[in-house]
Write a structure and sequence with these properties.
single chain, about 375 residues, alpha/beta, Rossmann fold, eight-stranded mixed sheet
């Protein structure tokens, strides 16, 4: 079976698309393509054939990339086209109509809610329009894949073949050996944005009385937010051990995670999509034996509480966040034990091996 992944906005080496789905499918299928934004065609070291089209200039630049994607994809002549956004799935629908291909819609996000945020004055109206657009397209899928129970329930209202494949991490071959820093170390990995709790975390650090180290890994979302954080640090946190690394290679991120004690997942409550999310970062902390300091939202609570792998806080309260940090810093042996519990839970329940079996079964049913 010839398989072609289609994406209008994700990177070729997107973690879910490439390192999870494609590498899982390669265990059964030999010929896999991916059509994605990029500068030039190439073949990956795993033998995946990459066909590229120019990246879109901004979020409004949607039609030209879709045309480019279709022209490339039709020449591939795949038996299955697996699309990762409404835009790329519209291309898949056209390929099915013209060539009889099987098509999969892989919905990773709350697309109607996310896209409508570009239109704050008519957000409610745009959300309904995009929801109707997505529903009309998704009905044409041979299979729908999605990442959480909320989205499964949404799609099951109008489609009979919906598969749940959460964004669980791929297990490493060997158990991680921690090399803890001498002082309690707290880490954040990801884009540095206000709605991901970065500024609230800085406000909390000011209140922590125990000596600790703080590491923030990733790029700032904007120069304005970067300046805002730098000003706060300069005026309030000169006596704190804080490191901002910027964006660094994955292997270096892993080295930092090996030495840290706890990680922040402090999504803010003013974004409905965040309140109803299972952040992949949560599982990545758990798999590296880091305790999670997480927003007290239902989906995060359902993972943290049963496993005893973290502390839930009000993500809008610097006092609550600071209290959690002090508890972990003052009880290091308990903190290490919580990290071990998270690692055990990921290995038992929250790992990609569970999803791989479902993915291969879904593909097998398309034959």
């Amino acid at each position: 079976m010839k398989i072609c992944m289609l994406t209008s906005g994700h990177d070729v080496y997107d973690n879910r698309i490439y390192y999870k789905e494609i590498l899982s499918l390669q265990k059964v299928y030999d010929e896999i393509y991916i059509v994605a934004p990029g500068d030039k065609d190439f073949i990956t070291e795993d033998g995946v054939i990459v066909k590229c089209f120019p990246k879109r200039k901004n979020w409004r630049d949607r039609f030209r990339p879709m045309k480019d994607m279709y022209n490339i994809a039709k020449k591939i002549g795949a038996e299955v086209y697996h699309a990762h956004e409404p835009d790329s799935f519209q291309v898949a629908v056209k390929l099915k109509k013209n060539f009889g291909s099987k098509i999969i819609y892989d919905s990773h996000e709350y697309y109607p809610e996310a896209f409508s945020e570009h239109f704050p004055k008519i957000k409610g109206l745009m959300e309904k329009v995009i929801y109707t657009y997505e529903k009309t397209l998704a009905k044409k899928a041979d299979c729908i894949i999605t990442v959480n129970d909320i989205l499964v329930d949404k799609f099951k209202k109008y489609h009979s073949n919906v598969q749940l494949l959460p964004n669980y991490p791929v297990l490493k071959d060997k158990e991680i050996v921690k090399e803890y820093n001498d002082i309690p170390t707290f880490i954040y990995v990801g884009g540095l944005r206000e709605d991901r709790g970065i500024y609230k975390t800085l406000e909390a650090i000011k209140l922590v009385k125990v000596p600790c180290k703080y590491i923030f890994i990733g790029p700032f979302e904007s120069e304005i937010f970067k300046l805002k954080c730098e000003e706060y640090i300069r005026e309030n946190l000169n006596n704190k051990d804080i490191v901002f690394t910027g964006k660094i290679p994955h292997i270096e991120v892993f080295e930092y995670l090996k030495s840290s004690h706890a990680g922040f997942v402090l999504l803010q409550p003013n974004n409905w999509r965040y309140v109803n999310a299972e952040p992949i970062k949560l599982f990545e902390y758990m798999i590296t034996k880091n305790v999670v300091i997480g927003s007290d939202f239902p989906m995060i609570r359902n993972i943290i509480e049963p496993s005893g792998s973290g502390l839930l806080v009000d993500p809008y309260s610097p006092e609550d966040i600071a209290s959690a940090m002090e508890r972990l810093a003052e009880n290091i042996e308990e903190t290490k034990l919580m990290g071990e519990k998270g690692f055990i839970e990921v290995n038992h329940s929250y790992n990609w091996a569970v999803c791989e079996e479902r993915l291969l079964s879904a593909y097998s049913a398309l034959k």
